[in-house]
Amino acid sequence: MTDNLQDVISTKLAAAIANPLFPAVDSQLRAGRHIGQEYLDNYAFLGDFQAELDSFYRRYNVELIRAPEGFFYLRPKATTLISRSVLSELEMLVGKVLCYLYLSPERLAQQGIFSVQEVYDELLNLADEAKLLKAINLRASGSDLDKQKLAEKVRAAIGRLRRLGMLHTVGEQNSGKFTISESVFRFGAEVRTGDDPLEAQLRLIRDGEAATPQSLQAGKAAFNQETAVENDEDFDDSQDENEEGAE
């Protein structure tokens, strides 16, 4: 019996699953939570058993990823057997603003502590208001009521990102104060190039970009294709006009 079991599961994977930390870590990962170095025991556990747990999760068509910044998370494939939820456009845009704030000098000046109001103000300052209102299906009138609804949506987005392990509450639960985790770099993957990260992130926010690197590439390809089609149509129209002029 033991020999047959070892053919299916390695000794080290069995040790990982038997570890008392596994149930909580597994539940958090499946819920979409990001586990960084601030979670000392859970982080060390994932580091010790990363290869074994990755092979375990691949049976569910998901991957255990360790990002360049060090945090762990599960990345589902299209055929995943683990339920997943998708962030809204506004939630992703708020995540990008948090990434921008993480990179900003203000983070050091404020000892890494930010407020919900600061995120909202920074979002209005950096992003186009019409795009923000459109992201939550509001008419782009800029009325006080619209801004109030937008503020409520931003608070809800911050709450969602907190549950995913990207923010950590400072003080009382309803204080509105928090620190930002390195896991916000899930929204900054596009700036992992040679460009200045702060400027690159700011450009993404101003463009209203709230997408994954894969969808960015797909969008770029679609844009290029549409441009090519439009150029062809313009060329055909000009040819028709020339032919009509010749007649």
Report on the structure:
The chain is mostly helical. It folds into 2 domains: 11-84, Arc Repressor Mutant, subunit A, CATH 1.10.10.2250; 89-220, Arc Repressor Mutant, subunit A (Orthogonal Bundle), CATH 1.10.10. Helices cover 58% and strands 8% of the residues. The protein contains 12 helices and 5 strands. The strands form 2 sheets. Strands 3-5-4 form a 3-stranded antiparallel sheet. Strands 1-2 form a two-stranded antiparallel sheet. Helix 6 (89-103) crosses helix 8 and helix 6 packs antiparallel against helix 11. The longest helix is centred in the last third of the chain and has 34 residues, at 213-246. The model is unreliable at 210-220, 226-236 and 241-247 (pLDDT under 50).
Task: Please give the structural blueprint.
Blueprint: H1 2-8, H2 11-18, H3 22-30, H4 40-48, H5 50-58, E1 62-66, E2 72-76, H6 89-103, H7 105-109, E3 113-115, H8 116-126, H9 129-135, H10 144-163, E4 167-169, E5 177-180, H11 197-206, H12 213-246
Antiparallel strand pairs: 1-2, 3-5, 4-5
Helix pairs in contact: 6-8, 6-10, 6-11
Protein name: Chromosome partition protein MukE
Family: Belongs to the MukE family.
Subcellular location: Cytoplasm, Nucleoid
Task: List key phrases describing it.
247 residues, mainly alpha, single chain, Arc Repressor Mutant, subunit A, Chromosome partition protein MukE, two-stranded antiparallel ribbon, cell division, elongated, three-stranded antiparallel β-sheet, 2 domains, Scp_MukE
Brief write-up:
The chain has 247 residues and is mainly alpha-helical. The protein contains twelve helices and five strands.
